[in-house]
Description:
The complex is a heterodimer.
Chain A: E1 2-3, H1 17-31, H2 35-38, H3 58-74, H4 85-92, E2 96-98, H5 103-109, H6 118-144, H7 149-168, E3 177-179, E4 182-184, H8 191-211, H9 216-235, H10 239-246, E5 254-257, H11 269-276, E6 280-282, E7 313-317, E8 325-329, E9 339-343, H12 344-357, H13 361-374, H14 386-400, H15 407-418, H16 422-425, H17 461-464
Antiparallel strand pairs in A: 2-6, 3-4, 5-9, 7-8
Helix pairs in contact in A: 3-6, 3-7, 6-7, 7-8, 7-9, 8-9, 9-10, 9-12, 10-12, 12-13, 12-14
Chain B: H1 3-20, E1 26-35, E2 45-48, E3 54-56, E4 62-69, E5 71-78, E6 85-91, E7 96-98, E8 101-103, E9 113-115, E10 121-123, E11 131-135, H2 147-151, E12 158-162, E13 171-175, E14 188-191, E15 194-195, E16 200-202, E17 209-211, E18 221-227, H3 230-233, E19 244-249, E20 255-269, E21 277-279, H4 284-288, E22 299-301, E23 315-327, E24 331-343, E25 350-363, E26 368-382, H5 393-398, H6 415-418, E27 422-441, E28 444-463, E29 480-504, E30 507-530, E31 544-568, E32 572-583, E33 593-603, E34 616-630, E35 640-648, E36 651-660, E37 669-682, E38 687-699, E39 702-706, E40 716-720, E41 723-739, E42 743-760, E43 768-770, E44 777-779, E45 787-790, E46 793-795, E47 809-811, E48 816-819, E49 825-835, E50 839-849, E51 852-854, H7 856-864, H8 879-891, E52 901-903, E53 906-917, H9 920-924, E54 930-944, E55 973-982
Parallel strand pairs in B: 1-7, 1-8, 14-19
Antiparallel strand pairs in B: 1-4, 2-3, 2-5, 5-6, 9-10, 11-18, 12-13, 14-15, 16-17, 18-19, 20-23, 20-55, 21-22, 23-24, 24-25, 25-26, 26-27, 27-28, 28-29, 29-30, 30-31, 31-32, 32-33, 33-34, 34-37, 35-36, 37-38, 38-41, 39-40, 41-42, 42-49, 43-44, 44-45, 45-48, 46-47, 49-50, 50-53, 51-52, 53-54, 54-55
Helix pairs in contact in B: 7-8
Amino acid sequence: MTTRNAMIRSGRGRWPLPRAALVAALLVPLAACDTEGLLEVEDPDVTRPESLFDPSNLPALRATVIGDFGVAYAGSGSSTLNMGLTHLAGLMADELWHSGTYGQNRELDKRQVGNTNSLLISATRNLYRARTSAQIGLNSYAQNGPNTAEHAEMANFEGYIYTLFAENYCGAVPFSSEVNGEFEYGAPETREQIYARAIASFDRALQIANAAGTGAAAVAQQRLARIGKARVLVGLDRYSEAAALVSAIPTTYAYQVQHSANTTRQNNGIWGNNWGRREVALASQEGINGVQFRQGTASAQDVVVSVDPRLPWSFRNGAADSRSVHHFQHKYATQNAPTPLATGIEARLIEAEAALNRGQSNAYLTILNSLRSGVGLAALTDPGTPQARVNQYFTERAMWLWGTANRLSDLRRLVRQYGRTANSVFPTGAYIRPGVSGPRTEGTYGTDVAFPMLFDEQNNPAFKQAAAQCNTTVA
Amino acid sequence: MSKIRWLFALGLAIVVLPGSVIAQTTGTVTGRVTDQQQQPVAGAQVLVVGGSARAVTDQSGNYRLTGVRAGSVQVSATRLGFDTRTQTVNVTAGGTANADFTLSSSALEIGGLVVTATGREQRQREMGNAVSTINTAQVEMASVPSTTSLIQGRSAGVTVTNASGEVGTSSRIRIRGSNSVSLSNEPLVIVDGVRINSSEITTVGSWQSVSRLNDINPEDIENVEILKGPAAAALYGTAAANGVIQITTKRGRAGAPRWSVYTELTNMRDVYDYPASFRADCYLLDVAEGGCNEVTGIISFNPLETPGFSPFIDGHRRQVGLSVSGGSEAVTYYISGDVEDEQGVYETNQANRYNLRANLTSRLSDQLNLTLKTGYNRSDAKLPPNDNNLYGYLLNGLLGSADPEVNCGNYGICKEETGAFDSGQETSRFVSSINANYRPLDWLSIVGTFGLDQVNRHDFETAPPNRIRPVFSSLIPMGYRTSNRVETTNLTGTLDATSTFNLRENLVSTTSVGTQHNRENYYDTRAFGRGLAPGTNSLKGTSQLFAVNENTVENSTVGAYGQQQFAWNDRIFITGALRGDDNSAFGTGTAFVWYPSVSGSWVLSEEPFFSRVPAFSNLRLRAAYGKSGLRPRFRDAITYFTPEAVRVGSADVAAVTLAGTGNPDLRPEISTELELGFDAGLLDDRIGLEFTFYDKKSEDALIERRLAPSLGLTTTRFENVGSVSNRGFEAMLNARVLESRNFAWDFALSASRTRNELLELGEGIEPIIMGGTRVQQRHQPGYPLGGYWFKPVTYADANGDGLLQVSEVSIGDTAVYMGSPFPTKEASFTTNFTLFNTVKLSGLVDYKGGHKQMNFTRFDRCSWEAICEAQFVRDRTNLTDQAGLIAFYILSPQENTTVYLEDSDFVKLRELSLSLMAPERWASRFGMSGLRLTLSGRNLKTWTDYTGFDPEVNGFGLTNFQTYDYYTQPPLRYYTARIDVNF
C-alpha cells in the first residue's frame, strides 16, 4: 500500500545495551580530547606593545618614532595615499600644483578642503600617530635611557608635531590619548594652546639634551630644539626671543628626515607624487599671488633649469592627468633625497625676520644676501618700503624652505601678523591647471587658509561639542 | 572551554541510553522506484521513517535497506522533482520484505532530503525553515559557465551580482541582505561536509576578484542547498550568519559504468557601443555663459570602435569533460575530468582550468558506509588592467585624446602598452572529505566527517621594462614584478551521534549530539621588486625596492551541539537545538557563545480534516527561530605593531609601526532570525507555492568603528555595538503547466523583497563614511547599509535654450540619502518547453530593482575630463551632463557628482537554450544511450533605464559595500554549442 501519510509504530527486539555501551566507550574519549590545544593559534608576524618597553629594544623604538614622524612630515612613496604635511601644506599654499587625477589633491590645491578628504585623513592620522609614538618613545627613554640625545630627540619630535598642528590646522585641534585601554578625549585647543604644548616639548628636549652632554649627537638635539622653539616664537610674534635662541647655531646645521629607496614607505613623499606618479607639479606664480618658484626658462623637455640653485626644475608634456604640463622639482629628485626639518639657514632667516621687525633693513638684507652668496646667487637690493621688504623676505623664505611645510604657515602669518588679506597672499582667482589650453576653467579658488579637523574627530565627544570653533578661513 | 567535552559526553549519554532500553532485531527491505511511465528513478532516496536506515536507488531504480527493525515500518521514497511516497512494510527478523514505489512529478519540493549541520540528511518536510535546492539535473549546463552563475537567479532571496565581464572574475553574493557592517557578508560555503575557503581574492593589478567558489566545477555538482539565515543555520554556529551554501558533488549509482562526455564551444562578445571622445575650442557651457559664441574646432575619435585601435577581440570558451559512474551494491564511484579554457575579449584576459574528481562510496558492512570525495582543481586566470586603473583598456579608450595621432587616440597609453602588463593568479586546490556513517543499531547512527581544503595560490603582476612609456609614472619603464605565494588550509572535523526511537506509537524522538572543529590557516610570502632585467620575469634581477613580507592568519573554532526533534504522526515536527562555540579570535573576556534554535513544521494537508479542502493537494506550515554568528577577525582583539624598515642616519634599520588597536572584549556578532512560511501544492501538486517571511536582526554587531584621530591610534577598532535589520519575504511559484507524452511546459517564478536598515551604530559613533566626496557611501542609522549620500543638485533650463547656465543649477547644503547600491526587489522567471522528448527550450529572465548605481564612467567622461559629446555638440547635449559639469567644477566647494547616480533597475534575459535530443533508438545505433546538442546564449538582452553600459558591474570588484561603475568591463554575451553523449 502506498500512502502519503506515514504512521509510526514502536519497534520491538532484543536488548542491544552491550553494543551501545561499546559505541559510547569509543566516543567518550573523543569528546574528552584537548579542546584548549585546538584553539591555539600562532602569530609570528607582529610585535605586541609590551615589547616596546624592553630596554634592549630602545634602538628599534627610536627607529619606530623616526619612521612614524618621517611619514607624517615628509610622506611616503606608497600608493596608499600616505602623503605628508610637506605635500599637503605645499598644495594648499603655492608650492605645488595639482596635475593628476586625485580629486583630493584638487580640493587641497583649490583651498576647498572637505573634512572627509582621504589625503588629509591619512596625513592627519599619521601626525597624531607620530605623537603617540613620540610619547611612547619619551616614556621608554625616560625609563630605560634617560638624559641621552635620543631621549631629547623624542621630545623634539613631539614639539615639531605640535608645531605642525598649530601652523597648518584650524584653531581647534584636540589631543586625546589611550590610558590603560580607556580613551581619554581632549577638547579642541587653540593655536596658542598648541604652541604652548610645543614650547613645553622643546624646553624639555633642550633640558634633556643639555643633560646629555656636549657630544655631537646631544648638540644636534639642542640645536633642533632651539630652532623648533624659535619657529614657534616667530608664530607668536616673539621675534627677538626667537632670534636669540638660534643665534649660535651655525648656518651649516641641518636635521634631515632621511628617506630610502628600500621600501616605498621610506621614499620621499614629494618625490613620490611629483616624480613617481606625477600627481602634483612644481607650481609657479600659482593663482595670481604665488611665488615664481620656477626661475628661468626651459629650452626643452627634461632639461634641468638651475637659474636658482635652491630649486632647480624641468618639465615634460603630460602629467598624470595626461593634459597639463608637468613640472618636476629637483630639490627631491630621488626617492631617498632627505627632507630638512630644521636647518641653520632657517635659523638665519629667523634672525632676518627679527631684524625686519625691528626695522633694521640693512641687517635684514645682509643676512639674506649672505645666504644667497653661499649658493652663488646675486645680492638683493632693498626694495625700499616696509611692505616690499616683507614681500621680499617671504619670497626668499619660500625659495629656501620650499617643500618643508613652512609655506602655508608663512602665508597664514602674512595675514595674521603682517596685516595682509588672504586673497592677497594665497592663490586666488580662476583655478586653471598648468599648461591646459583653451578657455576651460575649473571654477575659482576657495577661501580655506587652514586644514579642517577631520569628520572622524566627531567621534570625540569633547570635540563634537566645540567643532564649530574649527574655522578654516581664519589665519 | 572544557565545557565542550563535558557537554558532548553528557549529550552522548542522552543519545545512547534511552535507545538502549529498546530491544530490536532487524531485517531487510528491497524494492524498485519508478516514475509514472515505469521508467527507473535513479538517485531516489529511500528511508525508514523514524529509523536510521537509508538507501539510494541505483541506475535501475533498485534499492536495498538493511538493518531495518523487525515489525511494521514506514518506508518512504522521494526524489527532487517528484512527490514523496510512503508505505507500510512488515519486516521479519532476518527476512527480506519488498516495497516498490511509483513517484509522480511534483512542483512542490518538500519531500527532498537536505544535508544538515550534523552531516546527516533530513527530510525537508521535517524542517521549520525554507531551503532552496538547485539540482543540476534540472539546469541547462550549457548556460552555466561557473558555480556562481549556477546560483544566479535560481533562488529567491539570493542576490548574485556580476561585478565584471572579464573572464575569471566573480560575483557578489548576498543572502537576505547584508547582515554585517564591517565583516564579510558572503555566505559560508560547504562542499561535501567540509567548510571551504570561498573568499573573493582581489588579484594583484586588478580591482576584480577571482572567486574560490568558482574552483568547484559545476559539472561535478549534484545539488546546491541554500540555507538562508540563522533560523536555518544555527547549528553551523560562528560562521553562518550570512547563510550557508551547501554543495554536494555527484556520486555513483550501482550499475554498469555510465560514461558521459561533453564538449562545449562558446563565442563571447563585447556587445556595447562605446562612445567617442571629443575636444573643441570651447564648451557649450562657455557658450551658455557667453565665453564664446559657438563651439568650434570639434575633433573626435573613438579608439574602442576603430579597427586597429580597439583592444577588443572575439573571446571564446572551450570545455571538454568526461565522467564515468557506476559500481555495485558494495562500492559505487563517480570519476570525472574536465578541461576549460577561456579567452576573454582582451588578449590579456584568460581563464584556464582543469578539474579532476573521484568520489567513492563503499558499503563496508550493513552498518558502515564510507564515502571518500576528493577533487583537484588547477586554475590560471589572467586579468587585464581595467576599472580605476590609469593603464586600463577602458579608461584609456573612453577618455581618449580625440586625436588618433595623440596617444593612439587614448588617454595616455596605447593598447599595446596596456597589453604588456601580465597579471593574474594561479591556483592549485585540493578538496577532500571522508565521511563514515556507522549504524550500529537500527535506532542509532554515528556520522563522522573529516575534510581538508588546501589552496596554493600565486598572485603575480609583471610590468616588463621598456615597454610602457613614462606617461603616468617615471618608474614604469624600469619594469616591476610582484609575486605573492599564498597557502590556505581549512580543516573540518565533525562527529555526530543520532538516536531515533519511538516514545509512543505516534511520537518519534530524534536526538543528536555532536562536536565540530574548524581550523583556517593562511600563510603568504609577498615579494616586490623594481628594475627588471629585460626579457625576464624574475625578481632575482630587480635592482630597486626589493621588498618582502610575510603574513600569518590562523583561526580555530571548537563547537558542540545538541538537537532534539519530536515527530507526531510524521506530520508535526518540533525541533530544538543548541550550539556552543569557542573561537581563537574571541577577546580574552569572551569564552563560550551559545546559538539556540527552535523550529516547527506541520504538514497540514495530511491531517484527516484537510481532505475536504478543495484544490490543495499539499500544505505545510513552518516556523523557525534561531541564532548564528560571525567571529571577529584574527587580530581584532589585540593591539599590535608590524615591522617596517626605517632610515636612521645612513642605514636602514628594523622598526615597527602601530597596525592594530585591539579590543579584548570582542564577542562574535550574533544574528537572530524569525522565519514564517508555508509550502502549498495545488491541483495534485502541479502547482507548488512557497512563501517565506523573515525578520533578521544582527546585534552586538562588530563595527569597525572609526576612532577619533586625536587618539593617535589606528583608523578603526572593532567593537560590539550597533544592530542591523533585514526583513522581507520570498515567494516562489512552480508550475507544471502541461505534462503529456509529447509536450511539457513548466515554469518557476520567484520574487523577493528585502528591507535593510542600520538600526543603531553605537552611542557616540558618527556615521561611517566610505569613499570621498565623489562617491560617498555611508553606514548611517535609520538607513540601509552602504547607502549613497550626496548633496542634491537641482537644475532647470529657465530660458529654454537647451543650455544650462551656472545660475540655473544649485546644490543643497547637506548630503542626503539617495538610495542603496543593493537591489531591494528581485524576481526571476525560468521556464522549460519540451516537445516529443527531443526538443527542449529553456530560459531564465532575471529582474533586480529598487537600487542605484553610480555611473562614474559617465561622470569622468562628461564632467571630470569633459570629453563627452554632450559638452560640445548642441543637438547631442542633455541637461544632466551640463548640470554635472557645473556642479562638479564650478558650484561645489567639494566635488559633486550627484547627477550621475542613476536608477539601475533591470530585466535581463540571462539564459536561453535550445536542446535537441536524439531519439533513444537512433542513439543506440551508435552505441550511445543518449545524445544531445544544446545551443545556448547568456546575457542576451538587458532592459534598463541605466545609461551606463551595464547596471550590474562594480569597479570596486567584490568589496563589502562600495559600489560604482568605473571603466568596468560589462558582461559579455555568450553563445554556446554543447554536445552531451552518454553511453
